[in-house]
Amino acid sequence: MCFPSSRPSLASDAPIGIFDSGIGGLTVAHAIAQAMPAERMLYFGDTAHMPYGDRSPELVRTYSVRIAEFLANEGCKAIVMACNSASATAKAAVQASVPSNVPVIDVVAPVVRHLSRQGVQRVGVIGTRATIGSGIYGHSLREAQRSGGMMDGDVQEWATPLLAPLIEEGWQSHELMLPVIQGYLEAAGWHAGDQRHIDALVLGCTHYPLAEQAFSQVLGPEVHLVDGPTVVAAAVSAALKEQGILAPSGGPSVQHQFMVSDLTDNFVRSAQRFFGKEVHLVPGGPWFQH
Ligand code: DGL
Q1: What is the pTM of this model?
Q2: Among the options 33, 36, 83, 232, which is catalytic?
Q3: How much distance in Å is there from the Cα of 163 to the middle of ligand 1?
Q4: Considering the domain 109-228 in this protein, what is its CATH number?
Q5: Where are the domains of the chain?
Q6: CATH architecture for segment(s) 16-106+230-288
Q7: Residue 205 known to be catalytic
Q8: Which ligand 1 atom lies nearest to the CA of residue 55?
Q9: Is there a shared CATH topology between the 16-106+230-288 domain and the 109-228 domain?
Q10: What is the mean pLDDT of the chain?
Q11: Is the Cβ atom of 131 under 6 angstroms away from ligand 1?
Q12: Residue 112's Cα: distance from chain center in Å?
């Protein structure tokens, strides 16, 4: 299905639709809930089709469009693509598949804007194969630097596909995390203290914020770790404000909905770690048969 035109009006008390390939996007949902406690969220994790990071761009686009249409059909007033792999490959297709006045917020553009506003020149980006293969961070950062009148900075992008499964396993603080992070960075030619040093590292996968401590331990305090979920939550707030659809505050406490396309005990356990508090996951979404 395709929504050719805009919706007559967007209801401010409608939920924000948020989706990811799985439960990593709950780090973004958590930041949104912290920043905007009056907002109701409908979260969908496509656990049946994850990991998106190893899929082709065409397949990630197909899944993303289907999910965005589902969320729009459920009456969501905005769509947040809480997955870097989907943001890198499917933003335009998702925007085209929902009513034109439903804002679509991805997780790449807000981080790029944040870095270029701060004038950061030497940036490292880590993420899935899909995200890094798209080159979206390097391309967008250089474009933002140029349009801000800055010289092209140094942007290095590294695929780190082992990290998301380790974090999902709950091993973000395990001693194995450090050699894995180190191994990836060294294989890419990065060594602390050399001239290829970076000023900031973008954690370009929504799983990675959980392992922030391990990254700081490897990189040292002088490398700024970009807090993607907080930056994205601010962009969502700005988009809702612009459309005049921020939820009225002061109402009763909101009830979020969390759906996944495949529900297992392991996802139930992990979801709590990613959202920071108990999450009631239910099976549902575009592929769900009643
Ligand atoms: N959450 C996804 C992302 O931000 C990574 C997990 C996956 O590969 O599905 O790219």
Answers
A1: 0.94
A2: 83
A3: 10
A4: 3.40.50.1860
A5: 16-106+230-288, 109-228
A6: 3-Layer(aba) Sandwich (3.40)
A7: yes
A8: 8
A9: yes
A10: 91
A11: yes
A12: 13
